[in-house]
Design a protein that fits this description.
eight-stranded antiparallel β-barrel, 4 helices, alpha+beta
């Protein structure tokens, strides 16, 4: 996406009802990689210091930097509202919107980075080798975007602060990479208990307990391991904003092994 257009959109959206939106850090990338370039900012704060100045602080995503970079920015000038400028040792930000939940265009500098640690974190978070490759490209692009890596604060979509695999009946479909036109249907009854037990039922009537483990979230994207019918492998898919549909891929063996096929479907919530 064009950086200038995205920055304007980020600022405008933040100035209208930002209080209802989760705050993200977005690292500019190609359109097809955008969902992987959003990182929830769990510690973003806007406070007033003893001098009466506004102070903006947050920690950059480790998947981009590898090392912890806690950014603290102090209001540098009193521009005509609603635009505010913040400056600090690690960045300069131009912000609009509600002060407690701003939308900002940020230029970073003098960051402490470790590409190896960043790569290790990405490999742990994503199981699909192709998605791993895209996420690594975003991380590398951030670190090699010049002396002032640019990013944006302010989400354009509403979503819950925490995620878990939705309990209930998953109406799932599988298609193998070797035969993508052949789709197999199955039902997965999922109860996120302490044992993380799932019970897949296939079209031919077989039923056996299984499990989802090593679950990793990034916004509505989730990956992990599956175990069923004596086999094991990885899954990596994305839910819609209502957590009622998902689409992605699965493989056999360890995370990072080649895709075996597509895994997608819909979810009927567990009765309350």
């Amino acid at each position: 996406m064009n950086i200038i257009k995205f920055g304007i959109a980020c600022l405008l959206w933040s100035s209208v009802g930002t209080w209802a939106m989760a705050q993200d850090y977005y690292s500019p990338t190609d359109k097809d990689k955008e969902p992987l370039a959003r990182f929830p900012l769990t510690d973003l704060k806007v406070e007033t210091n003893s001098e009466g100045k506004s102070v903006l602080s947050y920690t950059l995503p480790l998947e981009l930097t590898g090392r912890r970079n806690h950014v603290v920015l102090k209001e540098a000038s009193a521009l005509n509202s609603p635009v505010r400028v913040y400056e600090g040792p690690l960045a300069m930000a131009t912000c609009m919107g509600a002060e407690g939940a701003p939308g900002c265009v940020v230029k970073h500098k003098s960051l402490d980075v470790d590409p190896l640690i960043a790569s290790e974190l990405i490999n742990k978070k994503f199981a699909d080798p192709e998605i791993r490759s895209a996420a690594l490209a975003i991380s590398n692009s951030f670190r090699h975007s010049g002396n002032e890596p640019i990013g944006f604060i302010g989400a354009l979509v509403k979503r819950p602060d925490e995620f878990q695999l939705p309990k209930g009946s998953w109406n799932t479909y599988f298609s193998m990479e070797s035969s993508p036109q052949t789709v197999t249907n199955s039902t997965v009854e999922w109860n996120a208990s302490a044992e993380n037990v799932m019970k897949p039922t296939y079209t031919y009537g077989a039923k056996a307990p299984g499990s989802f483990t090593d679950i990793q979230w990034q916004a509505t994207h989730v990956s992990g391991r599956w175990l069923a019918e004596g086999q094991m492998g990885w899954f990596d898919f994305t839910f819609d904003s209502k957590m009622s549909k998902f689409d992605g891929y699965f493989g056999f063996g360890e995370p990072g092994s080649p895709r075996a096929g597509r895994w997608f479907g819909t979810i009927s919530p567990e009765p309350r």
